[in-house]
Amino acid sequence: MQIAIFGLGYVGATAAACLASQGHRVIGVDPNPDKVSKIMSGVAPITEPGLDDLTAAGVKDGLLSAVSIADKDVVSSDLIIVCVGTPSAVDGSHNMSFIAEVSRQIALQLKDAPDARPVVAYRSTVRPGTIEEMIQPIFDDVLGTDSDRVELVYNPEFLRESVAIADFFAPPKIVVGTKTGERCAAIDGINEGIEAPVFYVKYREAEITKFVDNTFHAVKTAFANEIGRVCTKLGVSASEVHRIFVSDTKLNVSPYYLRPGGAFGGSCLPKDVRALQHMSRLVGGSTGLIDSLIVSNEAHKQFLFELCSQGLTHGAKVLMLGLAFKDKSDDLRESPNIDIARYLLTAGYELSIFDPYVTPGNLVGQNLGVLSRSPFIRKLLKSQAEIEAETYDVVIDTRSIAGNYKLDAARIVDINRLA
Question: Which residues are marked as active site?
Answer without folding.
Answer: 268
